[in-house]
Design a protein that fits this description.
globular; 7-stranded mixed β-sheet; single chain; binds nicotinamide-adenine-dinucleotide; 11 helices; Rossmann fold; alpha/beta; Quinone Oxidoreductase, Chain A, domain 1; binds zinc ion; 6-stranded parallel β-sheet
């Protein structure tokens, strides 16, 4: 099989703009799939790696982990995929064989990229080269490229009729927020919920609370422009913490006779994580961390947990990825979950820095980049 030369947006170093480059994409090796990427969303986790995480070992890299595409070719030993199949790359793999995959309690596959830094290839090399340098594959996916190579344990085959420029969102943000509410929090009918942070992840959490039958859903954000969308997904009350001269947890406690049943942190800020926990009712309140950060410790008073609250976290909404993503695609096609409403902008791969800037300045929910036809 041949090496493919194609366009990709390369992140050469932390905080610098991405550069459009011609890269070489090696043929898929044993157990791998080469994918023609059709569309991708831009998620805050891409920005986190570029601007907040700044781990130099993670560069140069091709970002992007919320994509959808078509199988171009498969490596030896791949029997479940063939050229032409529609697929969604998975930043969280499901090998089906490790002790975590075999346990119904978790979706944390042991062979995931995070256990090997920034690469999910079968050996610790990358399939990307640019200017004679190896380029890493962020989260094992790298969807800001016309072609990518991914291990078959991190690819979901989806319905032939699925619109790729929309279902790509199920590769990260929407599955994450939705699952955090319905799976990890386990939102119950009639309950009162609060979602902190109304980006795509938080809005998907609002949608999850609504689909699970919550009677009241507080949408909390410091950017009030997000409230209108939150209403579309089912939020009933809207709070801007900056508009009060006391902690928002106190405001919520007063409005709900003691606190909410379920709270979800979808910002990635350790202070907000604490606030979300403090906003829960004692005795049974459950607070879920969804926002991503690994640069700071969080803190809380032990009495928060001694009084019967539960604090937990959620990766990819608790969904076992390979099994669940095809079903979520069907849920979208059957009208059970929304996707179109998250898309506020559409751009080309060349405009990726504009898309990043839109998210950085809070002007978009999701911008979809059209990568190829
Ligand atoms: P986003 O930037 O679109 O949304 C974040 C929202 O939080 C914005 O609306 C912003 O105004 C709001 N916000 C900022 N500070 C706030 C504060 N102090 N109080 C209340 N709201 C505040 O991001 P996104 O793409 O929706 O991602 C949200 C978070 O989820 C990120 O941290 C991302 O890395 C993380 N994430 C986690 C997983 C996972 O599996 N756990 C997966 C995907 C994304
Ligand atoms: Zn993401």
């Amino acid at each position: 099989m041949n090496v493919i030369k194609c366009r990709a947006a390369v992140a050469w170093e932390p905080t610098a703009p991405l550069m459009m480059e011609e890269i070489e994409v090696a043929p898929p090796q044993e157990g791998e799939i080469r994918i023609k990427v059709v569309a991708t969303g831009v998620c805050h986790t891409d920005l986190y790696h570029l601007f907040e995480g700044k781990d130099k070992r993670g560069f140069p890299t091709v970002l992007g982990h919320e994509g959808a595409g078509v199988v171009e070719s498969v490596g030896p030993g791949v029997t479940d995929f063939k050229p032409g199949d529609k697929v969604i790359p998975l930043f969280l793999s499901q090998c089906g064989e490790c002790k975590f995959c075999k346990c119904p309690k978790t979706n944390l596959c042991d062979r995931n990229w995070s256990s090997k830094y920034h690469d999910i290839m079968s050996d610790p090399t990358t399939r990307f080269t640019c200017r004679d340098q190896p380029i890493l594959q962020f989260m094992g996916t790298s969807t800001f490229s016309e072609y990518t190579v991914i291990n078959q344990i991190a690819v979901a085959k989806i319905d032939d009729d699925a619109p790729l420029e929309r279902v790509c969102l199920l590769g990260c943000g929407i599955s994450t927020g939705y699952g955090a509410a319905v799976n990890t929090a386990g939102v119950t009918p009639g309950s009162v919920c609060a979602v902190f942070g109304l980006g795509a992840v938080g809005l998907a959490a609002v949608m999850g609370c609504k689909n699970a039958g919550a009677s009241r859903i507080f949408a909390v954000d410091i950017n009030e422009q997000k409230f209108e969308k939150a209403k579309v997904f089912g939020a009933t009350d809207f709070l801007n913490p900056k508009a009060y001269n006391k902690p928002i947890s106190e405001v919520l406690a007063e409005m709900t006779n003691g606190g909410v049943d379920f709270s979800l942190e979808c910002v990635g800020n350790t202070e907000v994580m604490r606030t979300a926990l403090e906003s829960c009712v004692k005795g049974w309140g459950v607070s879920v961390l969804v926002g991503w950060t690994d640069v700071k410790d969080f803190s809380a008073r032990p009495i928060q947990l001694i009084s019967g609250k539960t604090w937990k976290g959620s990766l990819f909404g608790g969904f076992k990825s390979k099994d669940s993503v095809p079903n979520l695609v069907c849920d979208y096609m059957n009208g059970k979950i929304k996707l179109d409403e998250f898309i506020t902008h559409k751009m080309s791969l060349e405009q990726v820095n504009d898309a990043i800037n839109l998210m950085k300045t809070g002007q978009c929910i999701r911008c979809i980049l059209n990568i190829s036809k």
